[in-house]
Amino acid sequence: MRIATLTSGGDCPGLNAVIRGVVRTATGLGATVVGYEDGWTGLVEDRRVQLYDDEEIDRILLRGGTILGTGRLKTSDFEASIDRVKENLADAGIDALIAIGGEGTLKGARWLHDNGVPVVGVPKTIDNDVNATDYTFGFDSAVAVATDAIDRLHTTAESHNRVMIVQVMGRHVGWIALHAGMAGGAHDILIPEHPFDIEDVCKRMARRFQMGEKYGIIVVAEGAMPKEGTFVMPEREVDQFGHQKFDDIGAVIAHEIENRLDTDVRSTVLGHIQRGGTPTAFDRVLATRYAVHATKAALRGDFGRVVALRGETVKLVSFEEAVGQLKVVPDHRWESALSLLG
Amino acid sequence: MRIATLTSGGDCPGLNAVIRGVVRTATGLGATVVGYEDGWTGLVEDRRVQLYDDEEIDRILLRGGTILGTGRLKTSDFEASIDRVKENLADAGIDALIAIGGEGTLKGARWLHDNGVPVVGVPKTIDNDVNATDYTFGFDSAVAVATDAIDRLHTTAESHNRVMIVQVMGRHVGWIALHAGMAGGAHDILIPEHPFDIEDVCKRMARRFQMGEKYGIIVVAEGAMPKEGTFVMPEREVDQFGHQKFDDIGAVIAHEIENRLDTDVRSTVLGHIQRGGTPTAFDRVLATRYAVHATKAALRGDFGRVVALRGETVKLVSFEEAVGQLKVVPDHRWESALSLLG
Amino acid sequence: MRIATLTSGGDCPGLNAVIRGVVRTATGLGATVVGYEDGWTGLVEDRRVQLYDDEEIDRILLRGGTILGTGRLKTSDFEASIDRVKENLADAGIDALIAIGGEGTLKGARWLHDNGVPVVGVPKTIDNDVNATDYTFGFDSAVAVATDAIDRLHTTAESHNRVMIVQVMGRHVGWIALHAGMAGGAHDILIPEHPFDIEDVCKRMARRFQMGEKYGIIVVAEGAMPKEGTFVMPEREVDQFGHQKFDDIGAVIAHEIENRLDTDVRSTVLGHIQRGGTPTAFDRVLATRYAVHATKAALRGDFGRVVALRGETVKLVSFEEAVGQLKVVPDHRWESALSLLG
Amino acid sequence: MRIATLTSGGDCPGLNAVIRGVVRTATGLGATVVGYEDGWTGLVEDRRVQLYDDEEIDRILLRGGTILGTGRLKTSDFEASIDRVKENLADAGIDALIAIGGEGTLKGARWLHDNGVPVVGVPKTIDNDVNATDYTFGFDSAVAVATDAIDRLHTTAESHNRVMIVQVMGRHVGWIALHAGMAGGAHDILIPEHPFDIEDVCKRMARRFQMGEKYGIIVVAEGAMPKEGTFVMPEREVDQFGHQKFDDIGAVIAHEIENRLDTDVRSTVLGHIQRGGTPTAFDRVLATRYAVHATKAALRGDFGRVVALRGETVKLVSFEEAVGQLKVVPDHRWESALSLLG
């Protein structure tokens, strides 16, 4: 048998661990593997490389990003190319495609499958917002990087009696902010799921100072929003895909707090370092388990499904389940985090 | 209300995160917290400290070990002291006890509860072998330390064309070896659940060399055992508790491989570094969630239970469920790891 | 004897290691130690704490920042308080003051010494720009943080075929950019000592792409400046001390490159994480050696000098030597870095 | 011009950084580079690979070990092969050889040079014992690994009121023990340069306990020796090169302390993890600077010398200076460390 794989969407730690896992599992079971370059684009343009189970592949387990490259193809362009995609797969003798990616990629994979391509999906997102799975790989690594940064900010905030704001990834969901905030011992956490009242934020911080504490750490998801009617956000720029740019929320909040409290406030935007670098052991294990399960599913012809972690077990779920809706931070998680703030 | 807490058994990263979480949650809800020193011993001897929700407590989130100290009290000594324990708790005005520990500690906690002490348990083990919970805190940190060591050993093994054996914790279960081995890209993994045949180990390694690879990494749980009739283990020393000492399995295997293959083999025992140091973000989050749930259970009088992670949710389970039997590596996990070896 | 110490100026990893080293060395030699809070301000306002050689002090070796707090006092305010400072020191029975800080602090220390206060200086700067010493502590830690970030950016830049710009600390000198750039394998490095020509930067990057490379990493010191006549920098804001704010140079360069090359360019500002967190082993050793030498100098009455690393030896140099002029990146270092760019 | 390079002796972090630096510098200056495999052996057997300045070479900057492999050739075998070596170099058109290695390698390099081969040496040793240079690369990484381990052991020692012994590399010199001990806040440090009296070690530790401390950390270089007449070391095994094996000194000391003090003592041997893995930023910069200087020396025909760090400058020194004698820990360093023990 001959398996193809590709990585699409934003990169994250663990993509290479999946690629390695697919190659080793498939090779061990007598199949061969090719990789398409730069996501769906490479599939459409038929740019592919043979992947061998050698020391080179073995070593990518530790490497962030994806050796296959990634890309973002417009859905319409993609759908217009369905015939070419099928031709390319047929010409290359591909029996199964393992598509590794986030929400958008999995929707594309589902559409391909609905149009007759034998696909297995592997969910990937830094943001941990895929519905069907307890965790996506990349998330733990992003939280680890953000937590390490928060640990560092504690000591400098404390030395200077400052409030430090750290803006982490999460446009639509607050998972990274929640976990990094809990792990980093943040004194406030602001997430998209719960619009914040700047007056409340200031009150919590003021109470800390009244209790004799000298500094504070606030973790802000980039998609955090003020409650209606509290203060007016500066208008956000819109990027080429029509998404608002969220580069500024930390700085905006810093400004608002400085206006209200007599304290020095600094803001740090973590940015791209959250998605790069060697994956944590947790993410390497998860990515590898996904790879083994997806490959075995592909080899036995169990298509149209997505691997997912449920408790201690990796399962196969339907595309519907996986991409139906974003997994947001549930109320019970938010409430237990609130016990620790202030 | 007045809550007491203590940590018992071997230390592991995240104990302090639980203590901090208990103090912050309880204080925020109007309760006070005392800590007993050195595990059950401190409870028996009435050595306790008041724990305040200040910057000092806040900072222990990052610190390995336990600020309360830990200890191992013989069950018989413990049981003989039940009246004194009850008196001590009554004198100190304690309404609830949160006991943090492993198998042994939880059994003690259950016995206390059966004898009328209001207890909530928090499971703790490096080894991840508590039955009722998907993960115990400390495990992820131990795996991270072991994986980091394996990453380092790859480069030196490769430079010298050697086989490197790394012995990790796990006397009765192979969780650390399994996860660190998968995360570290080990070429063989030996765990207590599956006695190994030294000839098979050598065959797998020999095949690697035949394929042109130049080196190999083998991860061995300290409790790994050869299959009956394969080779004779040197007799193991027995410690004061009647446990066999497992200091040597890596070196024994190294010796056996050197006898069978014409290759340089070295063994490294990771030892205590696996249980020390700053917990990973994952463990800090898990320990903190346990703390919040255990404290809330204690405050509402929900005694006789143990917090446990099930999928994405922290639940309360019975002592029976938690301490009934060790959680071993299940077959489906072992089989998917096997796909990646060699 | 009775020694006082204080930390002043921006915080950096290793300050606590010096404080610990002073306390342990002095206590071991029979002296006592007090710490003034928040830099010169605490000295003027007579806010001090007794420092004991206990486990608490021992543990700060690992902690970033400074347990004494720091501050920035205006030189004029400071000089106006000389009588009060002398009174405070006399009242507290202080025989010697160990002042830990950067350029500004050491100038203050020198002025105090010239006015009759027995002072020993310990140089501290993230930026490594103190003239008399090969290295200042904090620098190695800052470079380590920046290098770790660059390592992460490589993998994401490579996956997306992007140019990544990372802005590091260094308003007046390029040491952090130079070392992190070399350690991180940057393809271009821009430092204040050598104004850059944006056309040259683009040419080097374009040549990379022509050679088949897919991405590039550029490390920019925050004080990097374009060559006169190349392009006009947006006007910089000026802070309360009359310093230009340098928040934007990475973004400005990203914009300029995107205008000139047909490529995706992203910019990341590392910010305060470079000055926080556990110091590297190198910085802990250096800070501790400084502490031992400064304390011994203070105890034998060798005042008016600054500890400095020269090759393998810690020496005492005059204040003049230490604060005369900034230590910039010398030409031979710059030239050898250039061999590696592109 | 055509440059050859090879790595010989024990591997250490930074070897690949030198190889990369040589390739990039030489290629940038119009030369080509070949690498001989497995140290001198590859030179004798004419096993060589062409090294290109591509992304693959660029990436090894982060990788521990050496992509060229290393080996240990007996001096007599090596010297017998001088004609073959010269022939091999002449046949391959090599104009200069950059030999990267420790004491033994540099002696070989010097002998080659004396016999007419154009050689430049690059010193390499984990142990930091090369006489002519302030630091060798690999040392900072080894110290970082050991310090990280000591940090972890503090928390577990403290939780269990134990003495923890950690045995680090250093058969003949105590540099790693000294630096890791200082950085890790060890309470005792034992190095080969100063034979220890076990009674003194116990007294220092006993005094700690009398002062109310609960635990202790002792760092032991593997070559540490008891003072004559204090206690008898178990006889050491001798390896194939006639070197004594030093696997046991930590365990021996643990046993002796347990015999004398009523306390729990555990010993950990760090082993090979000290020489593997990603080099620290410090080592990457140092290795890269060595590479640039050695390559430029080779290209301008400045043979028969070794690169060395002196203060802030990389210089060329004679082979005599570099290999004359081991650089031991000098007395002033030892004395300043003693101030911090106990």
UniProtKB/TrEMBL annotation, chains A, B, C, D:
InterPro entries attached to this UniProt entry: ATP_PFK (IPR022953), ATP_PFK_prok-type (IPR012003), Phosphofructokinase_CS (IPR015912), Phosphofructokinase_dom (IPR000023), Phosphofructokinase_III (IPR012829), PKF_sf (IPR035966)
Protein residues bound to ATP: G10, R72, L73, G102, E103, G104, T105
Name of the molecule in the record: ATP-dependent 6-phosphofructokinase
Family classification: Belongs to the phosphofructokinase type A (PFKA) family. Mixed-substrate PFK group III subfamily.
GO MF assignments: 6-phosphofructokinase activity; AMP binding; ATP binding; diphosphate-fructose-6-phosphate 1-phosphotransferase activity; fructose-6-phosphate binding; identical protein binding; metal ion binding; monosaccharide binding
Function: Catalyzes the phosphorylation of D-fructose 6-phosphate to fructose 1,6-bisphosphate by ATP, the first committing step of glycolysis.
The reaction(s) this protein catalyses: beta-D-fructose 6-phosphate + ATP = beta-D-fructose 1,6-bisphosphate + ADP + H(+)
Annotated site location: Important for substrate specificity: G104
Cellular location(s): Cytoplasm
Positions annotated as active site in the UniProt record: D127
SUPFAM superfamilies according to UniProt: Phosphofructokinase (SSF53784)
